[in-house]
Each structure stands twice: as C-alpha cells, then as structure tokens.
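Progress against Task 2.4 (sequence-to-structure conversion) is shown through the following example record, which the project officer requested during the mid-term review.
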Amino acid sequence: MATRLCKRCGYPISEKALFCPNCGQKVEPPSAPIIPRAPSHASPGDRPARSGCGLTLAILGVALGTLVFILALGGAAVYMGLADRAKAEQRFAEEHYLKGERYLQEGQYELAIAELELVLRINPNYPQARAKLDEAYRRLEVEPTPTPMYQQETKEAILAAMQEAHEKGDWPRLIEQADRLLALDASFRRDEVDRLLYDAFYQMGLALVGQDRLPEALNYFDRALRLRPEDAQAKRAKELASLYLEGMSTWGADWAQTIEHLAPLYARDPNYKDVRTKLWQAYVAYGDAWVEKGEWCRAKEAYQAALQIEAAPAVTEKAQKASQSCP
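Structure tokens generated for the chain above:
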C-alpha cells in the first residue's frame, strides 16, 4: 500500500484516504509519485507492508489510539501528577491489549495488529503482546483475500450497523463502525457515512457537555465541523462550550477574565449549564475584591450587575453600602 505525508502534520496516510487520520486535514490528490513503504522486520511498527485495506486500517487505529493516549496522559499529568504517569500508561496499555485480543478472536486481524502495535509502543515488554501480534500477522498472511463481492457485502453490513446505531443513539458504536468502514473503503457511500458521523460527533459533544467534560466535547464539535464547516448548530455548540470552559479556567484567580467569558455566554443562552449561578457568583466575588481595595465605585458596579441576575438581600445591602461610600 503506497503512502504519503500529510501536508499539515506530516503523518503517513494512505493514497486512498480523503482525510488525515491524525489531524483531520482534507487530503488533496498527490502531485508527485507516491513512495511505497519499504518492508522491514526491525520492529512491530516496521512490519512488511500489508495489501488491501490492512495498512489503512492499522494507520487509522494507531492514529486514533495515539490521540486518545495523548489526551489521557495530558489529563493524568494535570490531575494525578507526573508521578502517576506510569500508572496511566499501564492502564492504557491494558485497555488496548484487551481490544487487540478481542479483535484477534473475532478475526479482525488488521484491527488487532493496530491495537497490539500501539501497546508495544507504550510498553515494549508488555506480557504476551508480542506473541499475540505475531499470531495476528500469521493469521493475516494465511487468510484468503476477500473477493470483491464479499468486500461489498462487508461494507454494506458495516453501514447497516452504523444506521442501526444511529437509530438507537449509540454514538460510540456508530463511530467505531465508521472507523472500520472508512479503513476498508474511504469513498464508500461517503455522503451517507458523513451524515451519520456528523450526527454522532455532534451528539457525543452535547452528551459530554452535560457530563462537564468540556475539552472532550470541543474535540467532537471540531470533528463535526470538519464534516460541515459552516454548520450553524455545531458552531454555536462549540462557541458556548469554549466560553464556559475559558470562564471556568480563571475561576477564583481572575474574576474580570471569568466575567469577560461568562457574561457573553449568559447573554446568548442564560440556561446554559449553571452559567446563571456562576456569573452571579463571579460578580459578587468581583465586588468583594474591589471592596478590599477600597474601590467602592467599581464594587458598586459589580454588585449591581449581580443584582440584575438575581436580587439577593445580602448583595442588595452590599450594593447600598458601596453606593454610600462611592464619591
């Protein structure tokens, strides 16, 4: 399978791919001869090039796995500390080893290879991973090449599974099946695939917003917008989530910055998550901060802004005191 490099991120991509599996960049037709990847047995990542859809599938699997891994380690570094990074790596390796083992049992050898190669990149000494990887390669080599009719039936079956998942609102399964289908044939009924994928990405984003997982939600909104760059609802969902996330990122540290982001969010959608309560609290805290500095006029403005959201007696009293002290 011939490959080339993504112009945006430099990631190796299949000649048939329409988008880069690493960064989502749309792939333009090649302007220079495609350079085949040289076979080697030096490491799991340098296995002999596989025919058909195998290489595309492995690249897609590794790219998605690597992206999730980076996000997972980033979260671990922030919330658990660098000392727990090894634990995060171990959990990630275990998760993908089990997925690789399951794919191997199901006869999905390219997917198994992609998962097991990712495990060995994380931990080259992971127990049984190398043996399972060798087994997956052996099975793939002896497996007969599917006939065109069989391949067509397989693609139709995967698309049907996507449509069923869409009807049930099972967005993770829909995305998983789409990954399989795009690896087999990136051009197969692409309009229908993109329609289903857009809905999955958008709905996954909304669900993650509801779970307070804003960074992940933004990632799914971005993926939806790659399919429909001018889509109004996905743009709005991303903008609202971004404003909330930016406002909360300075909570307790810089009330002016918090208000700068939460105020326009409240103006656009006063019922978005708990923005009403958060903005009210931010105004009150901002007023208190000005009182400590003796800036009574600015404190008065902050308290009055809070009272426009909710007329609490305690804040009314603070506003009156600030007004009396304001020259």
